[in-house]
Amino acid sequence: MPEISPILSELSKSNIPIPGQENIEFSEVVTIDRVLKNALVLPTKTRPKKIAFIGSEGKEHMFLFKGQEDLHLDERIMQLLHICNLMLAGSSSSRSWPPYCARHYAVTPLGTRSGLIQWAQIKHSMERKNGVPATTAALDIDRPTDLFQKKMRGVFADNNVEAAIIADRSKWPHNLLREVFNSLVKETPKDLISRELWMRAGSCDTWWRVVCRYARSTAVMSLIGAILGLGDRHLDNVLVNLDRGDVVHIDYNICFDK
Asked: Tell me, what's the pLDDT at 118?
């Protein structure tokens, strides 16, 4: 952190509220006491930084600092999800457990080119290794994206596809893409998520509650996603909490059927 921002590194006992407390009483607002010295730079295109604020109550609050990106749309989407939850909470159909709700998180734009995103405490993305549950997957099994690329290279070689076409993804033959997709679908167990949830549950009662929460969470986000025209829903942008069953969508840059 001292190399990234010396000012934040030296921050101490400030009166700055931790982002994401819009619906909390003023007397209960937690402020930033200090910033942890260590920051994790993620190896992605925009090099976002995972940072931690220590609140005035002594707890860690994790955030992702993203640059080169306008987060105002994400902020508006989070506000919409909050409103949807209020509407669902007031309906008669939501009085049973678990409630119908859309999991959301704090997004705080710091301008038109950067902002803070509350770190979603979800340890599992929908991307699983080779269709094997995480509890049994070997560490050396390829990720689905790696498997896809490997299979595409194979079909390109088998069909003598020109290098110019391979270099331009928009020109990849649809029949070859369909062939690879069907092959991956065939190799992936249809009950993959069901097995994950079952193996994580400590009892039948817990499993039933997690499955119900997963079903309702998926239903709500599917409906909202259809209304928003939400795109870019690849496996890294859909997270699932295998302990609770919550489905969390991240990265809302592609909306309104773009």
From this structure: 92
d(CA 201, CA 222) in angstroms, rounded, equals 25
Q: Please tell me the pTM assigned to this model.
A: 0.75
Q: From CA 71, how far away is CA 76, in angstroms rounded?
A: 9
CB-based contact 253:74 (threshold 8 Å): yes
Report how far apart, in Å, the C-alpha atoms of 14 and of each of 19, 32, 33, 96 are.
13, 6, 6, 42
What's the Cα-to-Cα distance from 79 to each of 1, 86, 106, 227, rounded to whole Å? 30, 11, 9, 15
Question: Could you give the CA distance from residue 151 to residue 95 in angstroms, rounded to a whole number?
Answer: 47
Give residue 215's Cα distance to chain centre. Answer: 17
Q: With a cut of 70, which residues of the chain have pLDDT below it? A: 91-96, 121-143
Exposure of 215 in the CB half-sphere (CA atoms within 13 A): 9
Structure tokens at 18: 């931790």
Q: What is the pLDDT of residue 20?
A: 87
In what helix (H) or strand (E) does residue 169 lie, and over which residues does it extend? none
Task: With CA atoms as reference, report the closest residue to 61 among 2, 118, 1, 123.
Answer: 118
